Amino acid sequence: MGQHRTTARPESGPAAGSGRLFASTKFRVGLSLVLAAVLVGGIWVAWDSGREDCTEIRKVSVVVDWGASDYVKALAQQTQTHSCFTYAVEAVAPSHTDERLSRKNKPQIWVAESQARVRQVGDTLQQTWSDMGPSLGTTPVIVATKNTPPPTTWTSVLTMPTIHVDAPARSDVSNAAVVGALAEVSSGALTHRDLVEHLTKRALLMNDEDGTADLAQVAASKTPSGIVTTESDFTRFARKNPESGINISVPDTGTVSVDYRVANVAQPNDERWTNDAIGALVETLQTDEGREIRERFALRNVDLEPLAGEEGAGAITVVKPPARELVDNILRKWTALTQPIRALVVQDVSGSMSRKVGSRSRADLLRDASLFGLKQFPRNTALGYWEFSIDRGGKGTDYREVMPIAPISDIVDGKPVRDQLAVAIRNTLANTHGGTGLYDTTLAAYKAVYDSYDPAYSNSVIIMTDGRNEDRDSITLQNLVSELNIMKNPGRRIPIIAVGISEDADAAALKKIAEATGGSSFIALDPQDVGAMLWKAVSYRVEAA
Questions:
Q1: Do residues 261 and 134 lie in contact, with contact meaning Cβ atoms separated by under 8 Å?
Q2: What is the pLDDT of residue 540?
Q3: DSSP characters for 167-231?
Q4: N or C: which end of the chain has fewer CB within 10 A?
């Protein structure tokens, strides 16, 4: 059985763990050097005899993964009473961090939930922030259950439908569970292929769930239920609900901690004094007031010492960290798997789509493949639909918006959006005529998704055509690729997934278009393979992770 505690009387003891994933001796040495520079030789005296001695008050912009926002706000408020800094703290959902840090008015400090998160976002935005910044506190990831035995491994946690796991777009908690399972792969308990299969099944389950779960729901449940959460969240819940009946456990294989890491994300001219501002936050934690704030939020120090007063999970085993490359790779795939799809589907309705393949037309085959694929999308998918030929939307406009992008589970005018899309697909592919206006349509579709970009989703354009551009008045392929390259933004990744139907499709052009956006192209030489190509296009986000 896994290590387990109850709300009645948790065990306590010294923390185990020289092998934890997100805390290290290297960090403590680095932090000591940072503080030495700040407190002794820094150009900005962050922590002095009092705020009244400051010659200037610096305003510091801080974004924090929203799970730690209240804690960081309390710590910042205490820090600014005794330092030369004023902190403006903004809570940001992990799904929106990329976009927030890519703005022109980006913050100076980012408090992330792990080093892995800092690396992941840094890679996406092509930044080189240090991922060894100071830690403001840690909290082990645990499993809270009721009416069910505690799971003994992280793999079993991820495969139990009664245990809720939040997507990484909401917090790093599920990432810690995945890293725990990856450690089980490293120990030989299961294969990497098995883990990916488990993660895929869990992601499909998550994408079809309604909303999220919390500890209150687990406490109120009369049936077996559970949630992957943090010791901090559970402890604060248990303080208010001592008779909840919830058991907490750590799998036998150990656990991973959420570690609130500080990253200096300031512009080069501000980096030095931002380091001082970070040092001031860390110095606050060495004071009685700072320790009281950390204890109030039930966070552990960087050495993972158990919480006082027999609260929380007590002594824990920390998993031996897998190689960084393995961690980063599996977390990229996990994020891609769990991120809901948001796509603008653009279909060719030119006259060539009426050509016969045996007894059926290309349009018939595309219609059936599209309707089948529409049924497979998870409930949290958002789709829009355009048709195109030449002048389809009026003189000089080759495309027409049939339906704007919207969640397919929404009800509009009394009917589900998914059902309305099915009707639209049937109607448009029953009305094929004209030439192929590929280039203008592609650029317009990309701009539409760019302008309406939603960082909570995996945004893309899926364009399907059986021909090549025939609009003499449109932009050239070279100009199209140039425009796509100009618009490309690491904070707004929008791959174009191009599906060519039959040997008549312009494979070379589709390849250039897709590659300009970090997407991919697929050619179904036999129109009857369109269904397989369409699903491969949808799955591309995971393969490219």
A1: yes
A2: 60
A3: -TTT-SHHHHHHHHHHHHHHTTSS-HHHHHHHHHHHHHHHHTS-S---HHHHHH-SSSEEEEEEH
A4: N
Tokens 């918006």 sit at which residue?
401
Query: In this model, does residue 431 exceed pLDDT 80?
Result: yes
Burial class of 189 by CB neighbour count within 10 A (0 to 12, 13 to 18, 19+) = middle
Per-residue pLDDT tens digits for 502-540: 889 999 999 999 999 999 898 887 767 776 666 666 666
CA 64 – CA 260 distance, rounded (Å): 9
The amino acid at 204: L
> The tokens 């589900």 sit on which residue?
416
Select the more confidently predicted residue: 31 or 374.
374
Q: Residue 530 corresponds to which tokens in the numbers above?
A: 């369109």
Please give the Cα distance from 298 to 35 (Å, whole number).
Answer: 24
Query: Look-up: residue for tokens 């279909």?
Result: 347
Query: Cβ(520)–Cβ(358) under 8 Å?
Result: no
- Tokens 């948001």 map to which residue? 342
If one counts every other C-beta atom within 10 angstroms of the C-beta of residue 346, the result is 27
Tokens 């795939």 locate to 333
Q: Identify which of 462, 484, 446, 448 has the alpha carbon closest to the alpha carbon of residue 374.
A: 462
428 vs 205 pLDDT, higher one: 428
Cα separation, 445 vs 426, in Å, equals: 21
Mean pLDDT of the chain: 85
CA 201 to chain centre: 17
User: Average of pLDDT values for 413-417?
Assistant: 95
Q: What is the pLDDT of residues 224-282, one digit of tens each?
A: 999 999 999 999 999 999 999 999 999 998 999 999 999 999 998 999 999 999 999 99
Whether the per-residue pLDDT at 85 is higher than 90: the answer is yes
Say what the alpha-carbon torsion angle 493, 499, 505, 510 is, to the nearest 10 degrees. Answer: 10
* Segments of 378-534 assigned E as strands: 382-388, 399-407, 411-412, 415-416, 458-465, 496-501, 520-524
Highest mean pLDDT (candidates 35-44, 87-96, 418-427): 418-427
Residue-by-residue DSSP string for 324-353: HHHHHHHHHHHHHHHSPEEEEEEEE-SGGG
The upper half-sphere exposure of residue 310, i.e. CA atoms within 13 Å in the direction of its Cβ, equals 7
- Report residue 309 as tokens: 């007063």
Q: Which residues contact 329 (CB under 8 A, 6 or more apart)?
A: none
Q: Is the pLDDT of residue 92 over 70?
A: yes
0.90 surpassed by pTM: no
The per-residue b/e assignment along 301-315, b for 16 or more CB within 10 angstroms, e otherwise, is: ebebebbeeebbbbb
What is the tens place of the pLDDT at every residue in 52-64?
A: 778 889 999 999 9
Angle subtended at Cα 399 by Cα 411 and Cα 429, rounded to the nearest 5 degrees: 65
